[in-house]
Specification:
Radius of gyration: 32 Å
Helix content: 40-55%
Shape: rod-shaped
Keywords: DNA-binding, Transcription, Transcription regulation
Protein name: LysR family transcriptional regulator
Pfam family, one: HTH_1
Number of strands: 12
Domain HTH lysR-type: 3-60
Distance between the termini: 76 Å
Largest sheet: 8 strands, mixed
Structural class: alpha/beta
Order of helices and strands: HHHEEHEHHEHEEEEHEHEEEHH
InterPro entries: HTH-type_LysR_regulators, LysR_HTH_N, LysR_subst-bd, WH-like_DNA-bd_sf, WH_DNA-bd_sf
């Protein structure tokens, strides 16, 4: 059968209003357009639904059987469509976001707070784990999108950079480089380092920078969390190269942060599956984070206030 939703709605309105003219007025259609829609519906169904006279329009037996069922079906359809419109306009639903521990602690609180204020009917579920698992979660659809340290170019992923996060030297106050307002990368040559391990998104970037500057730095300890790294440095195990967002230092750690020159940074960004449409709620949250770029960059700067 070849009929349209418009024809069904027109028939219902004619039956309820008892005439073509009144139905046309309600629907914003001319009387000929209303008559044509009903006639096309009857032809598609191969049954007469209305008896027309010069004075009235009356439902046939087939029309009387069809009308209540059709009305219920159209009402149910309108309810479904209205819910979909509200979901898109009000960002209703649940969004799953993946983020590494450092980014979860430094950036996600501001993002979650902004989301609650802008979209109170949106539920944000944070998946807090190491970078490798976050990238996998985005690729296999376990989360809607991720907040990550710049990954290597990956097929099937779309990326949006939201801020730059500089690398800093972290050392004890009694270290010779602590007396300087800034240190150069060359001055790290031969220094013993305490670094995050390979599960961190930052570690491959730090290794690349050390190689690019031709530095030979033995790594004494490789750890899974920045707080552990800082406590090792405070104990005199070595110095560290740390992203700014990993700071401030934990309580009781008497440490200093010094800029490393020339400036080297990591990029923090959002990743999502390419050519896959996010839910309206997830798309709204994605765009909100992009709007917050300046605010999030400021958070990266403020993280260093307690480190100097």
């Amino acid at each position: 059968m070849n009929f349209t939703l418009r024809q069904l709605r027109v028939f219902r309105k004619v039956a309820e209003q008892g005439g073509f003219s009144r139905a046309g007025d309600e629907l914003g259609l001319t009387q000929p357009a209303v008559s044509r829609a009903v006639r096309e519906l009857e032809e598609a169904l191969a049954v007469r639904l209305l008896d027309r006279t010069t004075r009235e329009v009356v439902l046939t037996e087939a029309g009387r059987r069809l009308l209540p069922k059709l009305a219920r079906a159209l009402d149910a359809l309108d309810e479904v469509l209205d819910a979909a419109r509200k979901e898109g306009g009000q960002a209703m639903g649940t969004v799953h976001v993946a983020s590494s521990p450092t980014l979860s602690a430094s950036l996600m609180p501001a993002i979650i707070a902004a989301s609650r204020q802008r979209y109170p009917q949106l539920s944000l579920h944070l998946q807090d784990q190491v970078q490798r698992l976050n990238v996998e979660a985005v690729k296999n659809g376990a989360v809607d999108f991720g907040l990550v340290v710049e990954p290597e170019p990956l097929d099937g992923l779309e990326q949006e950079v939201i801020l730059q996060d500089d690398f800093w030297l972290v050392c004890r106050p009694d270290h010779p480089l602590a007396a300087q307002t800034a240190a150069t990368w060359r001055q790290l040559d031969g220094e013993t380092l305490v670094l995050l391990d390979g599960s961190s998104g930052s570690r491959p970037l730090i290794d690349q920078v050390l190689r690019r500057h031709g530095l030979h730095c033995p790594v004494a300890q490789q750890l899974g969390h920045s707080n552990s790294v800082f406590r090792m440095v405070a104990a005199g195990i070595g110095v560290s190269v740390s992203p700014g967002l990993a700071m401030p230092f934990p309580a009781g750690c008497d440490l200093l942060a010094r800029p490393l020159l020339p400036r080297e940074s990591r990029r923090i960004g959002l990743i999502r599956r390419r050519n896959r449409t996010l839910s309206p709620a997830a798309e709204s949250l994605w765009r909100l984070v992009l709007e917050m770029r300046s605010e999030l960059q400021l958070l990266a700067t403020r993280a260093l206030e307690g480190a100097n």
